[in-house]
Structures are given as C-alpha cells and as structure tokens.
Fold these 2 entries.
Entry 1:
Amino acid sequence: MNVLVCIKQVPDTEQPIRTKPDGSGIEEAGINWILNYYDEHAVEEALRIREKHGGGVTVVCVGPPRATEAVRTALAMGADEGILVTDPALEAADHLVTARVLAQVAGTLAWDVILCGRLATDDNAAVVGPALAEYLGVPQATAVTKLEIRDGTARVEREVEGGLEVLEVELPALFTVERTINEPRYPTLPGIMRAKRKEIRTLTLPDLGVLASDLEPRWRYVRFDPPPKRVGGQVVHPETPEEAARRIVAFLRDVARVL
Amino acid sequence: MADIWVVVDHEGGVVRRITLELLGKGRELADARGGRLVALALGSDLDGLTTPLGEHGADEVLLADHPLLGTYTTEAYTAVVSEAVLQHRPWAVLVPSTADGRDFAPRVAARTGAGIVTDVETLRIDGDRLVATRPMYTRKVVGTVAFAAGVVQIAVVLPKVFPPAQREAGRRAEVRRLEVDLDAGAIRARSVERRGMQRERVPLTEAEVIVSGGRGLRGPENFALVEELAEALGAAVGSSRPPVDAGWVPHDYEIGQTGKTVSPTVYIAVGISGAPQHLAGMSGSKYIVAINKDPNAPIFQVADLGIVGDLFQIVPKLTEEVRRAKAAS
C-alpha cells in the first residue's frame, strides 16, 4: 500500500501576521514557517497505513525553496521520500493550478492512497485535495476522522453538519483528513538525523510537462488588509452573581434583542 | 450568460437557511447584472422545494431529481452540477459552505475549468467580475480576490454572512427539470449511513445565539451549565479547543481555526480565555458576551459585554434570569 501525502508550508499563525502597508501581501520578516498543522495528521495517517499494510510513504510539496523544511519535517516523522516542486512561475498559482501540478507529480508515481490535510491554515481554502482527486479521476472523502483499509476498499468516517457520515471508498482514492483522525508523532532524534541526510528531489515545471494553459490562475488576490478591529465594550465586575445575570439579560434584551 | 445560480442546501424537504441567504445575495447580483436568479436543487422528490425557492427570489428552479441523488455523494453531485454548468455557463454559482458544498465544489471547478473561491464573506461586482473577500491566517488578514475574465465564478459562501431573502407569498419560479443520467456503478465513494449526533437543536453555523464553553469549565460534567443556559435561550452549544482536546466534548462542538467558523447574533463565551485560534472562529459574531474570572483574559478585548466573575455562580443565575425573562415576554 503506497501512500502519497501532499503537504504545504504555512506561516505559524500562533504568531502575529501583518499585512504590508500597500496591501500587496503579508510581511514575511519574522514569520516562522511550519508544516501545515492538518498535514501533520495526514503524514501520521500515512505512517500508520504503512505500519499496518507495508509499502512506502512519499510526501510532495509545491512551494518556494524554503518549503524544503516542511518536507524535511515530514521525513523526520518517518516518510520515506520527499519531493519539492518549486518554480517561480507558480508564485501566482491558484489552487487549481497547484492541484494540476500535483496531479502531474502523482502521475509519475505508484500510489494507492493520497492523503491531504483538510485545509491549510494560511488561506483555509480546502480546494487542492478535491481538485487533485478530480484531475486524477479517483474518488474522494473530505474531512475524514477515521480511515480503515481492507481488501482494496477504505471505510471512512467524515464530519458533516451535526453528525458524521460513513462511506465505503474504492481505492485508489484521495482523502483529506480532519485533526481528530490521529495524534501525530513527534520526530525522533534519529528521525531528524536521517531526514537531514536524505535527498529531497526537486522538480521544476519543465520536468513535469505542465502546459502553460494549466498555469492560468482563475482568480488573483487584489489586496490583503488587516481585519476591521473589533473594539471591546464594557468590562464590568459585578458585586453578585445576580447582578451579573441581570446585566447580561438586559444586554441580550435591549442591545442584542434576542430575548 | 448573466445568470446567477444558487446550489440549494435542503434536508427533509425543507430549504435550509443558508440557501435563503444565498438567494438574497443572488437576487441582488442578478438584478445588478440584468440576469436571472436560478436555484439548482439536487435530490429525489424535490417538487416541494419549488414554492419556497420561488417565494424567496428564484426566477427559475432547476431540478435534478433522481433516486441516486437522494443521498449525497461526491461523484453524483459533481457529475450533475458540472454537466449543468458546462451546458448553461452561468455567470456565477453560489455554493453553501457546508461539509458537502466544500466537498463537491472544488471538483466541479476542476472539471469545468471554472474559478473557485471558498470561505467567501462578502461579494460585490467590479466591472463584469465578482470580487470577494475571505478571512485568512486565523482571521488576522482579510484577502480580497478578483475572478479572472471569462471564467464561470464559483463562490463557496460562509453561513450567516448575508441576510436571508424575504419571503414574497405567491411569487413563482419557472420550473425546469434537468435530464439526469447517472449509473450507480460509477459511484466509487458510497455513503453507508449518516449518523446524527442528535445534539443540536439548531446547527452551530445557523444559530442566532451560541453558548460556548472553555477550559474554565474545568471538567465535562460542568458542560451541563452551558447546555442548560443554551436550552433556556434556544441557543446552540459550542466549545473552544481545550475541552475537545481533553475529550469533554466531541470535535463537532469546536469553534475556531481547527473547528467551525460561526457568525451568530450573540456569542456567549463561558470560561473561554480567547486565544487567537478561537477568535478566528467567532469574531464575526455580531455581539460577544464573555464571562471569565481573569480580568486580563484576551476575550475581554473583543467582548461587547465582559463580565469578570465566577462562572459557576453566574451561569446558573443567568439561566434562571433568562427563563424568567422568557416567561414574562
């Protein structure tokens, strides 16, 4: 059972993110670049599939040269091979372009399962996974919280509004994983040492035979702004719980008008 | 084509609130473009939907009625929506940002060559293109996106960002049926069952009022305090991340970067400190009320009403007071 994991390097959003004064992007100085949180869960799930069914785990990342570090994190967790697709022509890529590039990479590899994070925590788009499944012509399940593989079929659970859905999915297939699917392992010291020595295959667009027409983004970012600042209102220290309750009820009735 | 399409979210023969929100926005866009507002509904036995869709602004209702569409599957939805988009080439397609909407819309875009923007919070027309804004980076940035010339524009729109369309009794839509050709054998991701957790009076993403509990509740048993207050208010119950990580409540309660994004009229945060990752999911709320014993909790910087005090004493009193107020009104 060979697993391909698609990963992304994103800014650590626990830290401040500032937009440039002219709105053309975010300030990259001081950003701590990390492996997308959901992708850690995808890598973990791939390792568990390998432990149970054998086979190999390959991670592939589309990004600038610094994204090598995200690939290395996945290798340190235990992935077997790492691929980085990097090309200046991909700077304006939208998600469909990225998915197209990933599909070209997937076409050169042998895999039974592709795993992606449910979304990337930079832009929250959740588009690349399903679009990649479409380009490859394989079935999918998104926001997967449980994945079991038996006899060429995956039995999965996915989160839906107010409940969960159980699906049976024929392999090969693509799954995007929810954070509750597993608890990712920390890279071990030997793992980190091994990952440092491992060669990461770097590909550019000419290597992949991507057509120029596939690189046309269907939208572009016009600008980036800080969100409208939410101004806090009153903070009160009521003398008694009764007074606190009365103040909240008055607010709900007279200001918010929900009572 | 100048038409605006809305993909209908419905359950048990009832049009869901987010559909009405998209119809409201869709009507405005269609009028501005001089196009028609078309509601596209997929399912089986859909005839009951045509009246409410017409009364809420649709000029035309496109019905894809087929037994294989009775249960959502990625492949059947993708096939039917893609076919319709390729045939009619609408100017824009508004898709509800639900688990299913986010599942099929990217595939439709990939299949049809349309552009797709998700997590849409605002939409306006600039020239002959749509411009959308969407929250990014844990809501620390608002990105503005413009679609490229000539592509079908698919916007996957967050719940509760647009007001629902007003009902106009007696207004009627033209009804058309799509020819649906589906083969059960071509569906390789099959739905076995959908299990409701049966906990939600109202889905979190549609709720007018949400009461949400955090680490300050100290243990799963104390979530009852939050549940009771929510019941008194007719509100939905949510949580921040720590109670989910501690296993007090399931993940579908979670609001924040790694959970749901909500925009209720009132969000009552009980024992929630207000970490950025939580604010990412709820700072779009109209009013925020926070109860926390720590006067320095960051939640107070965004709360319209902040109450510093012991939630274990305040919440039961508040529940009583709400019940009294409801009984009096």
Note: Chain A has one domain: 3-215.
Entry 2:
Amino acid sequence: MLFLKLARKKLPEVLKEFPEYSFYTPKKEGVRVLLKETSPDGLPEDLRFERSTASAKELLFPQAETMFYFLRYKPSQKPVLDEGKRLILGLRPCDAHGIQVLEANFLKVEPVDPYFKKRRENTLLVTVACSEFEDNCFCDSLGSGPDRLNGADAIIYDLSNAVGVLSNNEIISQRLKDYAFQIQEVRGEDEAEKGSLPQRTVEPLPILSPEEYLSLILEEKLWDKISSTCLACASCTYLCPTCYCFDIQDINYGPAGKRIRTYDSCMFNLYTLEASGHNPRPTLKERWRQRFLHKFSYIPYLHGILGCTGCGRCIEVCPAGIDMREVIKDVAKFPR
Amino acid sequence: MENFEPKIIAFLCNWCSYAGADLAGVSRFQYPPHVRVIRVPCSGRVNPLFVLKTLYEGADGVLVSGCHPGDCHYQSGNYYARRRLEVFKKLLDFVGLNPARFKMAWISASEGAQFAQLIREFTAEVKETGPNQEFVREKADLVRFLNENR
Amino acid sequence: MRTDDLILKCQEAFREKELDLFLGFERSSSGFLKPAVFTSLESLEKISWDPSASLNLATFIPRFKGKKVGIIAPGCVSRSLVILINEGQVSRDRLTVVGVPCQGLIERKKLGDLKGVRFLDSQNGKFTLQRGGQIVELPLENYLSESCLDCDHSGPVLYDYLIEGSSRKNPSGNLEKRVKALVELSPGERLLYFKKEAEKCIRCYACRQACPMCYCESCFVESSEPRWLQAAPEVADNLIWLLTRVYHLAGRCVQCGSCARACPEGVDLMSLLAWANQSVSELFQYQPGLEIGEKPALGEYRLEDPDFFWGGGLTEGKKCCS
C-alpha cells in the first residue's frame, strides 16, 4: 500500500480528480447526520466531520431497495442495480470496520449479493482518522482503534501542516500521485505517519473468545437480566454499522410488481417466526442473546473479525439506556 | 378538474345499506357508476384501517354506510361504528386529508332513493376535490414498468 | 423528595408485599436515569427518581404476567396502570404502586448536542449538567418534555405507598395551543406538515415499544394477511403507521410523552395524540386513566352519542370537524 503526503490546501483540487464520482460527506440535518452530496469546495478545513447517524450503510445497504420488477407470467427478472459511482469522504475507521463485516456477509459467502456488490464496487470509501473520542465509542477497547484502515479504500491522517493518505486502492493512489510531495511504499499500515491520535486512559473492555462466549448460550439468568429492560424496538439494529438482517416483500400493482428488501431486526418478534408458527427465538431473551452472540461470537468465528465496531451508536440511541459496554462487562463477569 | 372520474369505494352493511343499494338498482333510481361496493356484515365490521388502505391503494373517496342507530341487525354494531368512525374522521381531518373524501352514512333497506341521492352527492363532492394525491402510495416506478412491458 | 426516602419506601413495599420484582430507575453511565428491574432488597439501594428519567415504566408490566410487581409511579404512570387494569392486562392485587411526586421529565432532544454531557442533579426547578468539562445549571421549565409541560395530573392517582412531595402544577397549555394553531391551517398545509413528520419516521417502533398501552402480542404492522402497509419507510406507509397507532390509542393515551421521548427522530406524535384524546373527550366526555372500572371509550357506546352521519336525524346539518 502507498502512503502519500499532501499539502492541506490541495485536497479540494485532488477531489476534482474524481469527476465520475458523486462526492458525499456527512452533514447535519435536524437531529440526524446524513451522507449528502456536496461539492469538494465545501470541505471543512480541519477535516472534522460529525459522526454520521447511519454510517456507510445509508448508501451501501439502504433501509429499502428494489431488487427487481416482475410481470405475471414473465419469469425473468433483471436485478435493479445501483450504477451510481460515489466517493464518500469523512466517515470514520469504525464505519469502515462495519463495511468489512457487511462485505464478509454479502461478498465472501455464496451466493454473492449482487446489490451490495455493485454498490461497493462503485464506491470509494475514504475515512478520516478520529481526532477525539465520542462519548460512547469504544473501538480501542475492542482491539481496533481510531487510526485503523479497516478495509477502507483510503484513510486520511491529519499531520497538522499536511495530510497523510494511506491507501491500497489503485484508483486513489494513481490520481493522488501528482499532488503528493512525498510518496512511500509501506508493507503495513503501522509504518505510516499518523499524526497525533486521541489517547484514552480507560480500561479496555474484557473481550472473550468466540468459544468462551458460545459456552454461555444456555445461561438463562444472564440473558434474562440483560434483556429485562430492553424495549425491543429496532433503533440499535437500524443504526448499527454491522447489522445486516433484511426482510423481503413483494409489492404488487395489478399484474406487475416489485420485490423489495428492507431492514429486519432481531428485536422484532417476527424475527425467525416460521410459517408453521414455531419460533426458535420466542421471547426477547433469546433474541437479545442472538444479537450479542452474533456480534461477539458467530461473526468472529466465521469471518475472523469482531462483529462490533465499538462506535457506540446503540448506546446513544437506546431509549431504555442499555449500554453495550456494561453488557460486555456483565457477560465477561458471568461465571463460566 | 376535467375528465376526472373518481373511484369511490363503499363499505355497505349487508342488512340495511346493501339492501338499500339493491333497492335503488331495482327501482331504477339513477346514480353515477363510480362507486364500487364492498359488502360487510355490519358497519361495526369496518376497521378504520380499511379506509386508510383504500385511500392508500388509490381510491378517491370512501363511504361507510350502515343501519340507522337502533336498527342494527346485530343490535349494537352500528353504535360502535358510530363512535369509532367519528373519532377516526376527526383524526383524518386533522392530518389534512380533504374531508370530502371520507363519508359516513345511515341507509336503511327501504331507502333506495336516499342511497341514490347519497351517491350523487358524494360523487359530485369527490369529483370536485380532484384525484387522491394525498394518501396514495408511491407507484410511479411500477406504473412505468408495467407500461414499458405490456 | 429525598432519594433515601424513596429507597426505604420501596424496600418496605418489597418486603411487606413479598414482591417478585420492582420496576424503577437507576443511574446510567451518562448520569441520566435508565429503567431497571430490581429483584432483591439490596439491589433497591440503587433505585432513584428525578427528571432525567424518560420511559413510562408501565410499559414493562405486561411482560411480567403472573408475577407480583412493584413499581414507582408519578401521575402518568399511575394513569397508565389504571388503564391496564381496566383493560384486563394486570390485576390490581398483583400490583404494588409506590406513588412519587413529579416535576416533569427532561426531553433530551431539547438539550441539543449531547456530546460530553453528563446529568448531575436536579433541585428546585433547576438541573445541573456537566458539559465539556464545565458545570452548567439550567431551568427545568425550558427543557421539559412537551407532554410534561401540559400535564394536569402530575401526582399519582393510584398508589399503595406514597412518597410526599410537590408535583408540577400549572399546565402550560402549550400543546393545546400548538394543536389549535395546526387546526387553523388549511387541510393542505396540515397535510404538508404531517407528511414532513412522516418522512422522518424510520419505523423502528420505539414509540410503540415505549408505550404501555401498546401491548398487543401481534401488532397490525406484523399482519401479512391482510398486509396493511409495506415495510419500507415511505411517506404513505409511515402515515398509515402513525395514524393507526394514534387511532388505536384514542381515549387510551394518558399523554405521558414516553413515545415522543423514545423517538430517535423527533417525530411530532404529541399533537396527533392530543387531538385524538381531545376528540374522544369532546365527543364522549371521557378522560382516560382516572377511574378504575371504567370501560375504554371506543369499546362502548351510548344511545345518545353525537351523530354526524349522513341520513342521521339527531345532529343533521351539523359538521363533525372544522
């Protein structure tokens, strides 16, 4: 991968090297921070962006998308793919980690999801290393950090009088080359100059191995206690960068129709309700257990990366004040 | 609005209003053909979600009609309907649905002429209001797909 | 109200009534109170109550069927309990209510950017926050939830034990004024307003889950035959969701504001709910949650109910709405 250093004021010019890409940055809108199309000239000088409400999921795996249209008696359906090219600038390393988990699910397992694949292929994800921690984020406790590349196409480090761009994406490296005053070939991201990073003095959270977490699956009391004040709304799952469960519905209009895909949530009591009426996860306790183990046991076991990015959105939005950090501690404390 | 022919859905209770509508037909009372009737056992059967779903699917006007209070075949169904639908109509009006689009009526089995009169009035009111663009679902893409692939 | 008194009273209730569990609030890491289920006398040392709480605790009652449950209740929670009792969702003898005074609950969305904010304390109509290293004291009145500003039954109407203290009086009438202002708009303007609100909705159903009165085991949105609305959060579908939920609460909503506080997007639910309740109150002279033994308004009828139907003789010519 390449590490390029550029003068700060070159950035808006550099961004104009990507004319075929629509340019998106996080922008505050009411109570939300959404990814909005902007012009490269509107970049904040300090490269500090608000943390987006819905992470990169907003553009790569939106809440509702049309899969295909169909006509009665005509069996062929062409998938409706999003051909738009996008350059998303200003997300954070935790958002990139979230996309890694989505990639693991949608791209690394057969069948490959054509919708996510097309969007991901057409997207350049450029994150910015964090200059400070949010109230509720804890990526550093998960062995990740506010400076990691995490599979993004490039990450920008603030080097006060310059910016450093770390990238192993051909397109980005090529187009930036002419603007950089220093280019370095690096083998690992730790060889790059990262500038000053936020330091934290809190204890890291106790993270167990996937097998250790799985051994707690039958501990009723633990999951009872954790889910006792959960409202079972879907706020946390909708905003979580790594949640990818979806539901499929057909919307009809006479002899025509379309199949759409929308977010599902393990918090809904329809989750895993089978046509027979049987539900292997009949109450909130089982569903909460599934949410936790999915993030901390199943995803790491299957894909080798943690299913939680430590972004803290769930903590911020939960109307019942459930704190994932407390849950992690409670689970680790439970006698095994 | 010229050339606008409204689609009106009427939920008529089986024992009174539906019979009244039938009487209007048999007696050859003239009324506009825009109304499509759905027979329900009682006006109390009408879930306000019926009204919402009907508007959502593109109807321009919705009518609910039952037996006069005191004459319900099931004794009290229309009393419940009266309470529920009045509260519901107030809610729909508050949200901004044009009040002309939702009407509630009592038509007895012998009131064929009144049924025809009701439909004439309601159709004129809805026609004047114009097509339902407020509560109808988004289907532009489906319409386009259907037209391209007929 | 002193927290020590609250702890002692709740422990007394837990002991005397041999409760299985106690519903209350405890301090979260941000200093705001979060709901908690206390299952022992010792754990009740952590129970607390102040304006930083947010949820209506009665929403947890239906999940503890068959258990003997204690609960702390200000006015709105106690009224919710009355309705749950009237609708047969909980029996009075299984409930032990510790009535608490209430000065209103803070609407966190009014605090603006919550970065670096910790709730510290509340006293005498003011509350203190730690904000980015500084201690800030703010007047409660400016940050209360809209429902609390208008509350006219802030003291508990139902209780087995009572914690003495003054509850908020002088409802501001704000919500009523806002509803009136909306009524004065033209239908087209109102529709535009509510469509904008419906656009914000992400269908997380936090409002439904935070509401004690939404206890249906199968909500109408989960129905697939018939399917009333699609899962995608489009405006028309969101409107069906919002209107139907509000309609299902007409005459049952105690205007506690738990839904509005739980909504992550700040959708204006209160004006719809206030209007629905107002309609029921005007048409049928019914106020929800004040008397045990009352039947829900839309579950009964009177022969002399106002009649605005076409062809009805009683109130011919009168219009039901403006």
Note: Residues 3-299 of chain C form one domain.
